[in-house]
Structures are given as C-alpha cells and as structure tokens.
C-alpha cells in the first residue's frame, strides 16, 4: 500500500480490505462522504485553491479540512486509481437552480469503468451529492444511502437527477469527453472568482452520515436532516458558535499552520454576509 493510501485511509477511518470491485467502490464512496465535509471556506476567506496532488493531500488529508468538487473528486480519483480502478474525471454544467441559459462546466465528477460496466461516482456536490456510485444507464432509478437518483440521456448529453419529494430535479449536465488538468484549473478558478458565484457569498458545508442522515450549514444556519426531514435546526448566534459546530459536528480541522483558520478570521468573514439561509450546491 502506498503512503498516500495509508494516510487517506486513516483520514476516513477505513479499516477494511480493498479490492477492485463494486462493494469496495460503494464502501469507499460512502466513507469518504461521511468523513471529509464539503465546504467552501477557502473561497470566502479568501484563499487560492490549488488542485495538484500534494495540495489536495495537505489540505483534505493532513490538515483534516474539506473542500468542494474540484478538490473532493480530485482526491477521490487518485484514491480509486491507486486502489486499482480505471477512473477519470469529467466536467458538468450545474443546473440545480434552473439557470436561464446553460452555464459553463464547473462541476467535477468521476467515471469509473469496472468489469465492462461504467459507473458515475461523485463525492463533491454538497447536500445533494451521491453517496454511492450509480450505473451509467439511462432511465434507471437507483437508490443510494441518501436518496434516489436517475440519469437521462440525449445523444452525448447526460443529466443527473435526484428525486425531490414527488418530482425529479436536474442537478447537472455532462458528457464523456476527455478533460485535462487545465480544464479543472479553469473551472475551479471561475467558481472561486466569478463575482456572482454563490461560493463567494455564502459559507456552505455538508457532511453525510452513515445512517442516511446529513448535516448542513448555510452561513449561520445548521440543520441535521434524516429521511428528507429536518430533525434539528439551529440558528447559530455568532461566529464563535459556528467555529465550534464546524469542529464538533463536521469534524473539521482548524489548527493546521497553512490550512487552518482562526476564530478571528471566521468572524471577519461572517460579518460581511447576509446570514439568512439560502439554498446552495
């Protein structure tokens, strides 16, 4: 086992054996979602987000931080490759908020090929992210630990949807064209710097739980969800309470010399936000 995998497995609390099979893929997917929170703190601090292998390890593994799709799926792609899976990244166009025009490619996801079948894996879409791989097959309703999903297909275009109450909500469009590191760098830069990017105007966090629940933060609003229902909601009074919840409920590391952040830094960020909860990716 490589030193990278040893460190990553310690980060997510993995104590099982690994094999290049669907059971391992499913288990790794869920355990990653449960251990490494989705978060955009570096965007709002602001700090530049680097996507090279060492930067992802330093931040998400060693410093016990989280990240968003370019980081989460970049790290997970390396994990799967070193375990022995055939995997590559794709890029999608996020349509969750029903934009009036087709947006740019700003979401990184993974295509895994296993025993002649193709699967979509994605550990980086916040509150609605997959917590299990799904078959790349159109019109098949697929159940994950945190909800039902399906793919629809029109030529080269695929759309991932999730069941929201009694209807299907589209999340993102994607195709299977080969992408390069420069494409992820471009999408990452746009997501972090475009003035209208929601990542710049709201602090967002999500951690999925093994029991099917999930924890979300939108600015100062904390929610514990289970079976689609809010079983706990807190309007946190200040940045100090937020700082505590990040560590205690999301398991976020804040003390690393490079990737940590202080209460004072968090307080300064939150002072500039409208702290009423808003929907986020």
Automatic annotation (TrEMBL):
The keyword Acyltransferase applies. InterPro entries: Arylamine_N-AcTrfase, Papain-like_cys_pep_sf. Keywords: Acyltransferase, Transferase. The keyword Acyltransferase applies. GO terms for molecular function: arylamine N-acetyltransferase activity; N-hydroxyarylamine O-acetyltransferase activity. Belongs to the arylamine N-acetyltransferase family. This is N-hydroxyarylamine O-acetyltransferase. The lineage of its organism: Bacteria, Pseudomonadati, Pseudomonadota, Gammaproteobacteria, Enterobacterales.
């Amino acid at each position: 086992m490589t030193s990278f995998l040893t460190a990553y497995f310690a980060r997510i609390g993995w104590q099982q054996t690994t094999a290049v099979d669907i059971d391992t893929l499913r288990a790794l997917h869920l355990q990653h979602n449960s251990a490494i929170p989705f978060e955009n703190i570096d965007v709002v601090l602001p700090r530049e987000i680097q996507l090279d292998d060492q930067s992802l390890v330093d931040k998400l593994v060693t410093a016990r931080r989280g990240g968003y799709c370019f980081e989460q799926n970049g790290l997970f792609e390396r994990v799967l490759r070193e375990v022995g899976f055939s995997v590559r990244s794709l890029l999608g166009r996020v349509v969750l908020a029903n934009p009036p025009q087709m947006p740019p490619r700003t979401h990184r996801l993974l295509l895994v090929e296993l025993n002649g079948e193709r699967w979509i894996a994605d550990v980086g879409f916040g509150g609605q992210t997959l917590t299990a791989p799904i078959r790349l097959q159109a019109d098949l309703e697929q159940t994950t630990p945190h909800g039902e999903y399906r793919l629809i297909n029109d030529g080269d275009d695929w759309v991932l949807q999730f069941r929201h109450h009694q209807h299907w909500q589209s999340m993102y469009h994607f195709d299977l064209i080969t992408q390069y590191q420069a494409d992820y760098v471009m999408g990452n830069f746009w997501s972090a710097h475009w003035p209208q990017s929601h990542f710049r105007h709201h602090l967002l966090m999500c951690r999925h739980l093994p029991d099917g629940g999930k924890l979300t933060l939108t600015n100062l609003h904390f929610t514990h969800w289970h079976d689609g229902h809010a079983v706990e909601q807190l309007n946190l009074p200040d940045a100090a309470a937020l700082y505590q919840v990040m560590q205690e409920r999301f398991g976020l590391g804040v003390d690393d010399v490079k990737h940590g952040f202080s209460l004072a830094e968090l307080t300064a960020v939150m002072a500039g936000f409208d702290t009423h909860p808003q929907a986020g990716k």
